[in-house]
What does this fold into?
Amino acid sequence: MSELHVINHPLICHKLSIMRSKDTPSKDFRTLLDEISMLMGYEVTANLPLEDYEIETPICKSIQKRLSGKKPAIVPILRAGLGMVDGLLKLMPNARVGHIGLYRDPETHEPVEYYCKMPPDISERYVIVVDPMLATGGSASDALGMVKKYGAERLVLMCLVAAPEGVKKVMEDHPDVDIFCAALDERLNDHAYIVPGLGDAGDRIFGTK
Ligand code: PRP
Ligand code: URA
It folds into this structure.
């Protein structure tokens, strides 16, 4: 059974509250999302496997630990997921980056797929699917399904703000995938926007409203 991890560290709560304000401009919104993504990345990568290896310090030979296996993969859901990539790459500069293009149909709120490109050997990588908003869960659930079709087996979903409806859907559709978020909000409104949320994440990142 999957787990929901709400990473409500004081720094994350503080930065997220500024992002939520309608008066925060795109430039600050992007910077804060980048900072929070890096802070969340610390928790999201807490179970990466390690292996022993020998080094020589100026004093003696020593067995130390390093990350083992293939580099992790970060997979943003376009567009808004792009805003979470750089923060994670600061922690894992050698991570691979895949892309999934999905948008929500404004009438039906159903996700529509328009792009998918994955790094090689995805089945051997720890895959972090990123998207700031988990609303109905349709986009995240489809994206996780697409990455699994490419062979991924170790996946997590990292978002910023989640609605209970989205968490439920992803947990039902993907009981093997843990969800990490910075906040679990109250509900969705009639337009399937998260309440209180922060509005349209893609528009706020890219200044397209
Ligand atoms: C937003 C958001 C998620 C999706 C969440 O993307 O970034 O991908 O909606 O909604 P859901 O959980 O109900 O599927 P949007 O479709 O607005 O596209 P964009 O990132 O290109 O703005
Ligand atoms: N997509 C967004 O960008 N925000 C929401 O609140 C819901 C979906």
User: Anything to note?
Assistant: Residues 77-80, 103-104, 109, 111, 131-140, 166, 192, 200-202 surround PRP (ligand 1) (CB under 6 Å). Helices lie at 10-20, 26-44, 85-91, 138-149, 164-173, 201-206. The chain has six helices and 15 strands.
